[in-house]
Design goal:
Layout lengths: L2 H5 L1 H34 L3 H9 L1
Length: 55
């Protein structure tokens, strides 16, 4: 990507927004994978629902 495009405000903000959304989606993916493993190990869903709801 040419630097003169990134120096302009609108494309730079679009790139930053895309990076932020991508990082947020990665966090959701990781947290759902971890919580899925925890639920499958314990066999109980209810404690995780109550804990997640209270946060």
């Amino acid at each position: 990507m040419p630097l003169h495009v990134i120096r302009r405000r609108t494309p730079a903000l679009a790139i930053l927004a895309g990076l932020a959304v991508g990082m947020a989606m990665l966090g959701v993916l990781l947290s759902s994978a971890i919580s899925g493993r925890m639920v499958s190990r314990s066999g109980n869903v209810k404690p995780y629902i109550v804990t997640g709801r209270s946060c």
